[in-house]
Amino acid sequence: AAGYDAHEVDFTKRKVACTRLFESDIVMGASEKLKGMIKDADKSFDAKVMFVVGTCAADIIGEDIAGLCNQLQPDIKAKLVPLMAGGFRGNAYDGLEMGLEALLPFIKKRQTKRRGRKPRIVNIIAPQANLNPTWWADLEWVKQTLKSLRIKVQTVFSHNTSFEELEQAGEATANIVLSHDVGYKFARKMQQTHDIPLILDDIPLPIGVNNTTRWLKALAAHFKIEEKVEPIIKQGEEMVVDTLRKRALMIIPRYRNCRIAVSADGTLGIGLVRMLFEELEMIPEVLLFRSAMPDSRSILERELDSLGLTSRVIFSADGYQVKQTLEEFDVDAVIGSAWEKY
After folding, report:
1. Which of 89, 120, 139 is the last residue of a domain?
2. pTM to 2 decimals?
3. E strands along the chain, which residues?
4. How far is CA 203 from CA 133, 175, 197, 286, 290, in A?
5. Does 248 have pLDDT greater than 80?
6. Among 60, 137, 179, 342, which one is most buried in terms of CB atoms within 10 A?
7. Considering the chain, what percentage of its residues have pLDDT values greater than 90?
8. Does 33 reside within a domain?
9. Which strands, in side-by-side order, build the sheet including 152-157?
10. For residue 227, is it left (φ>0), alpha (ψ between -120 and 50) or beta?
11. 170 and 128 both lie in a single domain
12. Distance from C-alpha of 66 to C-alpha of 70, rounded to nearest angstrom
């Protein structure tokens, strides 16, 4: 579900129906219960598309969700899209990739080729695929920045996205992935099927002053609007410096040369490396990443090499590895969550 919308306290905003499988359903099967629920949901929600997600219990008993959807489709107004997402098929990042891939068939292809200079239109992919609980604020900053540069955001995959916006995603001239953990596969498939290039995929996301400047300059270079981005960079740097002068002049010297362990995902962790080292004068001694990051490891390697750091790096770090590594290294501080604290 995370692949399609925000995690919100008010779940009444989300059109979700559940079969509520019990022990008897696991033994005897629950096909009839699922059929009834799909029919009721079709009448109640009046949706254009309905994703039928098989979770752990349905996957374990081998429920044929794809066959059931094909059987019911003639009687259902909504387009049924089956997804088998049992926990043993992968982790949360794999689930997000599956959810994104299921959207691909709904994106219409352009029937005619553009002539002349291409318009500035982008899709934003996987803004929620990270550990940041305020990712929606980062997404809003990106959208506002693009708007100020007169770059149109066609579709966000996916947050408050209408079916019409999804269909028109093929109108974009570039894709931007706002995650170092999820979205690369989807963007590359979209590049193959819809000829929309993936941009800004070789640098860290805009975390910290220097990374934000690099990201904005790379964005401007792609669309050939370098002169438009300079005022935004200047304004942002002045705001950060002014804030630090007011609040952090006593803090930064206290943590200078502080040896740090970072426990995060790739989206946050890669960007924090340069921010901690160059801007806050701390030393990232240990980097513990929750995901495997097969598509973004090269970005991390380039960052460490350019900064001259030899940090200990662990990918797909589970709880045991995090605990053992933090016990092994005598760091001064840990940047992570309450889990690492306790």
Report:
1. 89
2. 0.88
3. 49-54, 79-84, 121-125, 152-157, 174-177, 198-199, 259-264, 283-289, 312-314, 333-335
4. 22, 14, 15, 21, 19
5. no
6. 179
7. 62
8. yes
9. 152-157, 121-125, 174-177, 198-199
10. alpha
11. yes
12. 6
pLDDT band at 14 (very low <50, low <70, confident <90, very high): low
DSSP 58: H
| Residue range 27-79, pLDDT digits in tens | 777 788 889 999 999 998 888 889 998 888 888 888 888 999 999 999 999 99
Number of domains the chain contains = 3
Q: Are residues 117 and 74 in the same domain?
A: no
Q: Look up the domain containing 309 and give its range.
A: 249-341
pLDDT in tens, 88-99: 788 888 889 999
Instruction: Give bridge partners of residue 289 from the DSSP assignment.
Output: 264
Residue 119 DSSP code = P
If residue 69 lies in a helix (H) or strand (E), which one and from where to where? Answer: helix 65-72
Identify the domain boundary among 61, 89, 117.
89
- Statement to judge: residues 85 and 113 lie in one domain: no
- In the chain, what is the straight-line distance between the N-terminal and C-terminal CA atoms, in Å? 29
- On whether both 85 and 111 belong to a single domain, the answer is no
Please report whether residue 272 resides in a domain. yes
pLDDT over threshold 60, residue 8:
no
- The CATH number of the domain holding residue 190 is 3.40.50.1980
H or E stretch covering 324: helix 319-328
Cβ of 85: how many Cβ atoms within 10 Å?
20
> What mean pLDDT is predicted for residues 235-252?
80
What pLDDT is stored for residue 117 in this prediction?
81
141 and 114 inside one domain? yes
Interatomic CA distance for residues 265 and 262, integer angstroms: 9
Domain-located, residue 225? no
279 falls within a domain: yes
Q: pLDDT class for 241, splitting at 50, 70, 90?
A: confident
Residues in CB range of 27: below 8 A, 6 or more apart: none
- pLDDT value of position 59: 82
Q: Which two tokens stand for residue 266?
A: 């790739």
Cβ neighbors of 203 (< 8 A, separation 6 or more) are: 211, 214, 215, 218, 299
Q: Are residues 23 and 72 in the same domain?
A: yes
